Prior knowledge:
6-stranded antiparallel beta sheet; mainly beta; single chain; 95 residues; 10 Kd Chaperonin, Protein Cpn10, Chain O; 0% helix
Amino acid sequence: xxxxxxxxxxxxxxxxxxxxxxxxxxxxxxxxxxxxxxxxxxxxxxxxxxxxxxxxxxxxxxxxxxxxxxxxxxxxxxxxxxxxxxxxxxxxxxx
Length: 95
């Protein structure tokens, strides 16, 4: 089963944050926050404009992106958690 997003929606696989700080300290489970970055897995065809054309998506498959902490809808595909977001919910591309 694969997800084919519609319109300007994007499927993102969240990337878990590091468990160790830059100074070498391990973070306990209670100190970890919900991930806010992930890898783009699938992209919809783009938002339909008033003239009937489609707006080309800004992101590409494989891009690493930032999104809001509570953005999108969580879904599970083949036992792996993914997020379905609108392109407007993305905060930036990590590059």
